[in-house]
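ok trying again, last paste got cut off:
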Amino acid sequence: MDFSLSDEQVLLQDSVQRFIQNDYSFALRQKLIASDAGFSQEIWQQFADLGWLALPFAEEWGGIGGSPIDTMILLEAFGRGLVVEPYLATVVLAGKCLEMGGSRIHKESLLADIIAGQCFGALAFVEPQARFNLSDVTTTATASGAGYVLNGFKGVVLGGPAAQFLVVPARTSGAQRDDHGITLFVVDVAKAGVQRRDYTTIDGGRASEFHFEGVSLDAADVLGNVDAGLELLQGVIDYAILAIGAEAVGAMEVAYKSTVEYCKTREQFGQPIGKFQVLQHRMVDMFMEHEQSKSLLYMAAMRLDEGYDQAARKAVSALKVQVGKSGRFVGESAIQLHGGMGMTEEMSIGHYFKRLTTIDTLFGNADFHLRRYSQVQ
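nice, full thing came through this time. structure:
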């Protein structure tokens, strides 16, 4: 495999790294997460102007036609800067659902608005009883005339407070845990019967809980094929795992490098603590955990770039297992070596740890994906 980046990918990497270094300081991030929206609409529009919102979508629909490797490059830099704009929710999750399963009308309206920075979406798929099992769905969409009536509950909807529409998996036939019988719907959050409760997540992001009570949907609101939405949903989730895996690798890099620099300045017993051999070993271990995660990230990105198959699924699960294990180790070690200061709001290192902890729980934790890896043939 060739792990080198193309000239265009190097330019993308340089541009997003310059943005993070020059225009997205930690102080700015702190100001954004304390605001009502939790992010900057102006920065989001800047993403659109730079073409980042169009990156993963086909040129046919106004996108740039970027590959999973391009998404990896962008999100790794976002992880270094702890970017709070809802790129994962709107572009990676809701946007890819529209591209992979939406009709021409969906793509020419909602997807085009996402690319232009004029619309926010979210994927509402988490249910309390499911425990990472995407086929465990109790939300129902019952046929009614030419359309459907949606009833149920979805929790931990990332980007929910800003979303103007949701992609909602609902059961249209079969038993609660059947793979067949799940259909994806586009739901306008302004529809009658949609109730939302917003909250702030531990990593400073925004999420919502949604209740659906007798929400009327049209047949045109269906994404993909009726009763066959699980495969589409799984494909989008695996793409999102690559994205957050890249974000975690970027965050781990900053965490271990910041820790190394801190240990050069903090003194105990008249010398920098970085000279103590046992701490040097710990920092080397942090470096190795980051490098192992980065290797699996590249492997997963290249597998997905070759096509979404069983090999790609295994590579994605392997990445999630490694990121979960390494993120916890790097984060906890960084906090320990910083001492009590590490968890103060004023220091960035605690915020990197919180983001890494959140990433571990998204889309299945390390234990879940270890089982999934062993089951994929």
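cool. The two ends are 22 Å apart (CA to CA). The longest strand covers residues 147-158.
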